[in-house]
Amino acid sequence: xxxxxxxxxxxxxxxxxxxxxxxxxxxxxxxxxxxxxxxxxxxxxxxxxxxxxxxxxxxxxxxxxxxxxxxxxxxxxxxxxxxx
Length: 84
Hints:
5 helices, globular, mainly alpha
């Protein structure tokens, strides 16, 4: 229930473009349900929108480990470029 509540809060905040609040809510969802790839993917996407690149990569990589066939996660990781 805690994971679902946090996930719902994250979706609401994200829809309202409050990305920092969404990131925090999705982070709570990942703590409550650490094996949920959707929680990690949404944490990463909210972090990306909040300009937290490191957290975005962390979220997307963990989601990809849990759902290795999720091509959209690979596409999101491709958005990140390493400094030259």
